[in-house]
Design brief:
The complex is a heterodimer of chains A (310) and B (317). Chain A has 310 residues and is mainly alpha-helical. Chain A has a domain of 201 residues: Orthogonal Bundle (MetI-like fold), CATH 1.10.3720. In chain A, 68% of the residues lie in helices and 2% in strands. A two-stranded antiparallel sheet of chain A has the order 1-2. In chain A, helix 5 crosses helix 7. The longest helix of chain A has 28 residues. Chain A is elongated. Chain A starts with 21 loop residues before the first helix and ends with a helix. By secondary structure, chain B is mainly alpha-helical. Chain B has a single domain, classed as MetI-like (MetI-like fold, Orthogonal Bundle), CATH 1.10.3720.10. The chains are: A mainly alpha (310), B mainly alpha (317). The interface between A and B is large, with 47 and 56 residues.
Chain lengths: 310, 317
Amino acid sequence: MNEPTIVPTPVPLTPAASTPPASITVSERKQARRENWKLIARRPGFVIGSVILFVWIVCAIGGDRITPNDPLHAGLVANNLKPGTTYNGVKLWLGSDTSGRDILSRIMAGARDVLSVAPPAAVLGVLGGTVFGLLMGYYRGILDQILSRIIEALLSLPTLLIGLLAVTVFGKSNTVVIIVVAVLFTPIVARTVRAAVLAESDLDYVTSARLRGESSGFIMFREILPNVSGPIIVELTVRIGYAVFTVATLSFLGAGPPPPSPDWGAQVSESYHIMSAGIWWPTIFPAIAIASLVIAVNLIADAVQSVFEA
Amino acid sequence: MVRYLIKRLLLAVLTLWILATIVFVMVNLLPGNVGRQILGPFAPPSEVTKFNHAIGTDRPLISQYGHALKNLATLDFGTSYQFNKPVNDLVRPAMFRSGKLAVLALLITVPLGIVAGTIAARRRDKFADRFIVTTGLAASSTPEFVTAAIISWLFTIELRWGHVFADPPAGTSVIGQVRYLIFPAFALVIVYFGYIARMTRAGVIAAMESDYTRTAVMKGLSARKVMMKHVMRNALGPTISVVGVQVGYLFGGILGVELIFNYHGLGSVLQAAIGKHDLPVLQGAVLSIGVIYMLATLAADLLIAWLNPRVLAQVKR
């Protein structure tokens, strides 16, 4: 995506284009990229998704500086107050939870928990998957065979269960969750990238680079990588959505940040027991927050996908 | 067919072996002393040593690994640390209960997804198509426990159409059990419906654009015959393999749904095992689900091969 300008571009070696001035091809590529993003920005799904995502990013950055009340203050108001109640002059738009904390403030602050874990996990997973995919697709042979079997085995389990097992073994912390989710995503991304690389590596520009005597590393990362960036960008947006999904579920199942944290999954897990008593707001509002974030990310991913894969 | 079957079986065994190895490596990376962790900081050292000997963690890793593989081959996963009971006594009944919920969900999702996907494909780019694809995408991207919480609140608490506690009392008839399980199943249906519908849609569109469908229409077959005999038979391949894969995912997503609906399946067993560091139970559950997953994908592949003989021809080459 952000390729430096010195990349030798795969221009067909017709006499006229045999020595293309670098500046022209680069600006053409920039233009093509700009066109792509314009097409993406025109899709209604992308606009809706971006607006929702923007709101949550603002909440995540602002944290308790912009929440109406302290999200961690237990006993701020009485327990389990209904949405819309005013208590001692404190307006509770979304009600209070079992510890007398303001749910709206907790949901706003909780955006930080999920947004500081899911996107880094997805980025790491895509990086790892890209490296493995390039190696497998470029070298093929026995390495590819072995790694493909291992990938098949890794893909054969609900990622969630392996994630739970791993978090239990390595301990609960954001770093562990990020690494676990990244490792779980690596084989999935590797498979996609491998397929794209396989299709590329038979093309003439790769052969000519090889004949020029370029190193394998150069060919993989400077020649092939820019040409498979489309599927990688698509994979990244899709993976961010799945990362939010996985991180939220892990914290709901008890593998997330510990109690006072306003993490959304943890909020649902703390309060769903009392839903049967008619106290639904401490469960349903964080649940809706999770749903809105995953749907927003997926709307964006869908728009990106439909433009890049057209 | 026999050759294909043998090839697929070997692949399944190989995959299970890799899986067992991954789980073994992960579990044995656990820092510290298992006996100390289970018995607590105040247990006398002699007791800890005895415990470690009893569960075998003082043996060399290679012998433990052999033991783990033997366990997998015999589907016997040892003894739970926390209950001192065979893991199978805990995992199997829970699995059976989760399985009931999963089967009910699949019985609803698969036909619904196939019908919706076919409608979407036949009304491509019209409102019905956009609606099915978009809601399917939104629904399948939402975590199961979130969908379950919203459904539980809406239908069992506000509208009182179902049971908040989905555990049917002992001796409930099959129909009665379905009444208890219908809303948790519905939560799973919402999540998995989108994938199946999208796969079917893509398959039907590809089949409808093919030459053989055009020929079938041109030679004057009725629309119904074209759909049933030519389009669907070819279009359902990807759908069936997605269903096979989903059986595995269903056993992951089902955990959250079970907890929300207070249903005692694998979800509560796993949650307790995580809380108590009960690794044999976790290991047993993960590997049992792995076995189920293998069987499901195997069945899906065989079904595809039976529906579409070209798959077999490809294998032979």
